[in-house]
Structures are given as structure tokens and as C-alpha cells.
Amino acid sequence: MPVVDVDPDELRRLTGKEDKSDDQLKQDLFGLGLEYEGETEEGLMQLEFGPDRLDRLSVEGVARSLRYHYGDDRGVYVPKTNDPDWTIKVDESVPDERPYVTGAVVRGANLSEEGLESIIQLQEKLHATMGRKRVKGAIGIHDLTMLKGEMLGEEGGNSITYKGISPDEDSFVALDSDRELTPGQVLDDHPTGRKYADVVADYERLPAIYDELGLFSFPPVINGRRTEVSTDSRDLFVELTGTDQWTIDHMCNIICYALDARGATLEQVEVEYPDGTTVKPDFEVRTKTVTHERIETMLGIDLDEHETIDLFERSGLDAESVSDVDEVDAEATSDVAEVDAALDDEADEPAYEVSIPPYRVDVLHPVDLVDDVGRAYGFNDLVPRYPDVGTVGGRHERSQLEDAARRSLVGLGFEDLLNFHMISAEENYDRMGVEAGSDVVGGGEPVDITEPYSEDYTQLRSWALPSLMMVLENNTHRAYPQDLAEIGLAAERDESENTNVAEHRSVAGVLARHDATYEDAKGRLQALCRDFDVELTTPATEHPSFIPGRVASVVVEGEAVGVVGEIHPKVLVEHDLELPVAAFEFRLDALAGE
Fold first, then answer.
1. Does residue 326 have a known ligand-binding role?
2. Distance of CA 383 to the CA centre of its chain
3. Most exposed residue of 78, 127, 450, 455, measured as fewest CB within 10 angstroms of its CB?
4. 494 annotated as ligand-binding
């Protein structure tokens, strides 16, 4: 969970609540979902909050939320922006890996020491979250008075250029340095350069931003010393580069709102791509729709239309009563029949079209709007009530089956494991010799993560055996035999499912020992099936992860549900294993005998 350091005196000043005590502030912040985690040696409050509210990564954003909470501000606020005087020209030499750029000009910023520290903290927190450690997006903030833009001829205005250069093509004085270095030398010799060298390690050409005087920014690594921002800086140039336009545009919005809170005036910039020109920042106000019935049902309270709109406005949103609920139902469920039924049942159901400000990157679904209404109402003011239907708690049949199978595996000498359900394509397929999309066990179409946090976890695993092989690989320093088993999630793409993903629980086991054979794995599998009184047969089959002639299909009650055999030497070598491994994997639901 993100933690932000906030100066309580600065928070009181920005909210206009000079008389608020620290304890009162903590209580008010808790009502917004920000938990007090302690304080720094300098007396700054350390506040932890949900990672979705990235607009609260600075004291300016926290103060904004408090002003809405107090009722001092209402509805959507969009800063005024002046027409662009500056242009960012995107050269065709820009690295393909980092093609996007955005920016803004900020004039008249009031940057005290505390204000400058807050903006720097916001910059680094955005790098770590939305920017994915600067890989997806990185921010550069410069003293505008130290830039000399290239004149745009008769049109007037100034321009800078975003381009790609070779590592030793040019040089500049980087921040925290007193000598000129090429970008390549920065990556080798500068502490910040070494820290972020991996971000651009695979780039053929390095990103660079030039004004008329030369190179002044090496994104996403470091800015030049010439344009360093200080408390004396009043006019700023904000530039962002990244791999995704949406991400850097919204990071820019959050930065601009924070500087607007410091009394700055915002000015747009033109971004001139080879195929067209756009104007940034784009403070577009999005809309989503949510029904009144959904709000009342989820929160368990009765509200009239006026109260609901008031709560939306106290959340920093605008709301208008409408009767069209198509958008709500389409977002609420992916089941077409359910949508049609809901439209028939709720054709006259009152709903609200809600306007969402540009800095709110967290509102993805009508449920997020309901959460805002609940916080504005006050979750502590909600009265607990018993559900209308009384039930007796108990374990689900699938959970009972899983527990019983786990006990049997432990009784057969296996050590029970719990591994991550996410994995990389290399571990899931390549290192096991399996081709994605093939019809063998584990060869299902991959369920890829759209925005993976790490290259080690880019998809949901299609089977559990690769996870066990990874454990064996990491345990080569441990004594043998190593008999390991896991019951866990496996998934593959399936367009017949509402979610396009088919999930199941898989049972996998490995026997790593000097005398491990197919018969050992099959014997354990037979004992497990006897415990559940299901019929097992093992006809010969082929599987790229196993030795030909030493592998069989696991057929339970006449249905093929898995595979058993001796792991192929290529797979063993790939995992640095120097002794035989016998293994099996099959679907857990086969043990239910249904």
C-alpha cells in the first residue's frame, strides 16, 4: 500500500482549517480511507491509503479530498488552461520502445521548501506506481526560464524536440553532477543512471529532449542540471515520456492539479507527432452511469435524489438524474441475458450520469461511484443489519474435496506447497517444452496480464507442474528425496466462458530422487484415487515435458483429466536438476467421481 509523507501544518493551510488538531485531522483522514501509520523524524504524518487513489500521493491531493469532505468544495473542478505557446516536436528517431510524450507549462507556481518537497515526492510516487518504476511513464520538471525554445517562424511560440540519440552522441551536465557526461556515461558512472539503466538497456537509441541550447533531459533516467528546479523557480516546464499515452497523460493531470493548488496558472503545449498534432494536457471530464437502486442496495440505506446528488458533489463529482440505464447494466455484467433482463426490470429505474474529474484514474466501474457516495455519507454512520435470508455457514463442497485430497497427499508422503498463480510464459511453456495453444496438458491458450507489474508474472499459469519444477530448481541445495505436491488454480483462455477464461483446480505432484520412476508416480496416483473410490486407467500418450514411452494419460472414470510420467531430460537440464523426477498432474474435480 502506498505511504505518503504529509506536513500537518501544510495540510491545515491548504484546507483552510488552521484550528484543526492533529488528532482531528487523523480522524477526518481515516474517514476518507487514509490510515495514520506514524510520523517521520521531521514530524511529517505518514499516511497509508488504497493504491487506486493516486491523486492523493501528495499533500495537495489529500487537502483537496478533505475540502470536499468538509463541504468547502463541491463538484468537478477543472483548472483553466491558457493557449499553448510551446510545442514538443517528436522526431522520427524517437526510440520505438518509448514513442509517447506529453507535457504542460506552469506559470506563477509558489514553491516554498515544503511545496517543492511535496512535488518531488509526488513525482517519485507516480514513478513507482503508475509509471511502473519509470518503465511505463516518467516525469521531468524543469525551470522554464532556463530553456531557450526554437522559434516557430511566423506562427510565433517556442519548441523543444524529443528524439533518439546514440549513447555517446552528445553530452550534458546531469543533476547532482559537476561534469559533462554522455547518456552512456550517465548509465555507467552516475548513481541515478546506474539505478535506472535497466529501463533503457534494450533500447537501440536513447530518448533525449533538446532545446536550442542542446540536450537538457535524458528521460526516463535523469534531467540536466541547467534546468534544475528550486524554490526560486516560478515558471516550470513539465514533460513526460512513456510507453503508453493514456498513462503519461493522466500522470500529467495529477501533477498539474497539484501545481494548480499552489496558485499556478496552467498552459497547454502542442505535441507534434510525425502523423499529427495534439494539445496537452487534456482535462477531459468522463461520465459513467449508476442506478439509484444499486446505490441503495449496496450501501443498505435509503436516499432521495437530492441527497444522492449532494453526496456525489461532496465527493468531487457532478451528477445529473437520468433514466437511461443501458450503460450501467452493460458494465455491471458480461452476461447478455442478464443485461436484457435487467433492462426489462429497470426500464424506469432512476439513475445518475456522473461526471468524473481528470485526476481520478481510479473510477473504472459504477461500483467505484457507489464507494464514493458511501464515503461521503460516512461508512461509520451506516447502521449494521442482518441479511434478509438466514443461512448456516459451512465449507463449500469444492473446499471439502480440496482439503480431503490435500490430507491424502500428505499421508502419501508429499510435502504440501502453495505457489503463486501467476507465472511467466517462459516458465509456463518454454522451459517445460510445451507450446502455447497445444492440446496437451498445460498447453492451453495463455491468460495474459494486460499490464504486468513484473516480467516474472505476465500470465496465469495453465498448469501447476511448472511451479513445482521451479521449487525443485531453487531447492537443489536441499537433501533428497523431495516429494512435493500442490493443489492450486490453473486457467486458460476459453471464449465459451462469460469471462473468456476457464479456471479449474489442479492437483500436481513431483518425486525427485535418484531412483524416481514412472511406476513410483503412478503408484501414488493409484493410492490417491483409491482413497476417493474412483477408477483410474493410464493409457500410453505423448507429452513434450515427459520421456516418450514413460508417460501416460490420467483417465478417471473414463475421462482424460491429466498426465503422469518421468520428466524429460531436457526439462531437467533446463531446471539444473541432476537426478530423475517423476510427476503427475490432473484436475481436482475428477476425484469427486461425477
1. no
2. 34
3. 450
4. no
- Cβ-defined contacts of 519-522 (< 8 Å, 24+): 520/582, 521/564, 521/565, 521/566, 521/582, 521/583, 521/584, 522/552, 522/564, 522/584
Residues 432, 585 contacting (CB under 8 angstroms): no
Which among 107, 129, 120 is positioned nearest to 255, based on CA atoms?
120
Q: Give CATH for domain 3-69.
A: 3.30.56.10
Predicted model pTM: 0.71
For the record, the C-alpha cell of 559 comes out as: 475421462
168 is in an annotated binding site: no
- Rounded distance, CA 13 to CA 18, Å? 6
And the C-alpha cell for 315? Answer: 465527493
Residue 576 marked in a binding site: no
What pLDDT sits at residue 397?
Answer: 86
Classified by CATH at the fold level, domain 286-325+349-379 comes out as Phenylalanyl-tRNA Synthetase; Chain B, domain 1 (3.30.56)
CA distances for 29 relative to 69, 260, 551, angstroms: 9, 22, 60
Residues 281-332: pLDDT tens digits? Answer: 999 999 999 999 999 999 999 999 999 999 999 999 999 999 755 544 444 4
Q: Which pLDDT does position 3 carry in this prediction?
A: 86
504-539 pLDDT, tens digit per residue, is 999 999 999 999 999 999 999 999 999 999 999 999
